[in-house]
Design goal:
- Helix content is 0%, strand content 59%.
- The chain has strands at 2-7, 10-12, 18-26, 28-39, 46-51, 57-59, 67-72, 77-82, 91-101, 108-111, 115-119.
- Strands 2, 4, 5, 6, 9, 10 and 11 form a 7-stranded mixed sheet that branches.
């Protein structure tokens, strides 16, 4: 079994910063793409950023220049550094990863439980 556990959410004032972490654990052979999604109240879940196994990155237009995604393959962990946060960034942030378990023939998508980010003065 594989688990993704996020941490680092919280309440921050506009213009502030937060760093989210997501650690994968379990019977892991390798991890392919990893990413972050978010879902605000009353809205659909949207992709924020993702990073490939060779560390190519891609960002939603709304966060370009403010957010940075990175990964530490030795720790099976993906990070999201969020700077200059704005009220519209308020959402539950979910970690997503394509994980190839030991003994499997391909990778499967896994989701974390979500962490709340609230930007408010």
């Amino acid at each position: 079994q594989v688990h993704l556990v996020e941490s680092g959410g919280g309440l921050v004032q506009p213009g502030g910063s937060l760093r989210l972490s997501c650690a994968a654990s379990g019977n892991i052979f390798k991890i392919n793409d990893m990413g972050w999604y978010r879902q605000a109240p009353g809205k659909q879940r949207e992709v924020v950023a993702f990073i490939t196994a060779v560390e190519d990155t891609n960002y939603a237009d709304s966060v370009k220049g403010r957010f940075t995604i990175s990964r530490d393959n030795a720790k099976n962990t993906v990070y999201l550094q969020m700077n200059n946060l704005q009220p519209e960034d308020t959402a539950v942030y979910y970690c997503n990863a394509d994980i190839w378990r030991v003994g499997a023939f391909r990778g499967y998508e896994h989701w974390g439980q979500g962490t709340q980010v609230t930007v408010s003065s």
